[in-house]
Write a structure and sequence with these properties.
Layout (H helix, E strand, L loop, with lengths): L1 E3 L4 E8 L2 E8 L3 E9 L2 E10 L7 E5 L3 E3 L2 E3 L4 E4 L4 E5 L5 E4 L5 E3 L5 E3 L4 E3 L2 E3 L5 E3 L5 E7 L2 E12 L6 E10 L4 E6 L6
Antiparallel strand pairs: 1-4, 2-3, 3-6, 4-5, 7-8, 9-10, 10-11, 12-13, 14-15, 15-16, 17-18, 18-19, 19-20
InterPro entries: VWF_type-D
Protein name: VWFD domain-containing protein
Length: 193
C-alpha cells in the first residue's frame, strides 16, 4: 500500500555477510507500507509515516533468515521433524545448520536416533557394521563397538580355542565402562559376571 501526497520513495537493500536489511525512506508527508514477501508469503511489513509536524523519513526491516527446500526460518528459529530426526537451526547470524541421524543410525520416529547396524560374530568370523567380514586368527580380545557420544563405553569380543586348536571362537563378550572400571562379562551358557 502506498499513500503519499508528493514524494520520492527510496528502497535500499543491504547485505552484511549472512544478514540483510531493507530500508524504506520517503522525503515528504505521507505513509508508505511495504510488505516483504518470501515465495508469496508476507514475512514483514515496513511502515514509514510522515505527518506535517513529525517526520520519520525512514524505517527498516531485518530481512535476515535461512532457507532450506522452500522453508523459511528466522534467526534463532529451529524446525525439526521427529518422524525423520531431521532438524534445521537458523543461528542468530542467519547461518543454517542441519542435523540428522548418523550414517549407522536410524530415526525411531520420536526424534531419537539409534544404532541401526548389527555386528555379527560367528565362529572365528566377525561381520562388522558395514558388512565387511574379517577372521580372527588368535586368542585375543577385539573391540566391536565404541560410541563417540559415550566415550567410556566399549564392547569387546573375547576369542579362545574350543575343541579345535587351529581356530578361535567367541568365548565371551565384555561390556566395559572405562571411567568407572565396570566390566560386565557375558559368558557362554548365559552366564553373566
Amino acid at each position: 500500500m502506498l499513500t503519499v501526497l508528493f514524494s520520492q520513495v527510496d528502497f535500499w537493500v543491504a547485505n552484511f555477510g549472512s544478514q540483510a536489511a531493507l530500508l524504506v525512506a520517503i522525503g515528504s508527508e505521507g505513509t508508505v507500507l511495504t510488505d516483504v514477501l518470501v515465495d508469496g508469503s508476507k514475512v514483514n511489513t515496513v511502515n514509514v509515516t510522515n505527518a506535517t509536524d513529525i517526520f520519520t523519513f525512514s524505517a527498516f526491516a531485518d530481512l535476515s533468515g535461512c532457507r532450506h527446500s522452500g522453508v523459511l526460518l528466522r534467526p534463532g528459529e529451529v524446525s525439526s521433524d521427529p518422524d525423520t530426526c531431521f532438524s534445521l537451526n537458523c543461528s542468530q547470524t542467519a547461518v543454517l545448520q542441519t542435523s540428522t541421524c548418523g550414517p549407522l543410525e536410524r530415526c525411531q520416529g520420536n526424534g531419537i536416533c539409534s544404532l541401526d547396524s548389527i555386528c555379527t560374530v560367528t565362529g572365528p568370523a566377525v561381520i562388522d557394521f558395514h558388512g565387511q567380514q574379517n577372521y580372527v586368527k588368535d586368542r585375543c580380545s577385539y573391540s566391536l563397538l565404541r560410541i563417540p557420544s559415550v566415550p567410556d563405553f566399549q564392547v569387546l569380543a573375547n576369542f579362545q580355542e574350543r575343541r579345535r586348536k587351529d581356530v578361535s571362537f567367541l568365548d565371551s563378550v565384555t561390556l566395559r565402562l572405562n571411567g568407572s572400571g565396570v566390566h560386565i562379562h557375558l559368558k557362554q551358557g548365559g552366564r553373566v559376571l
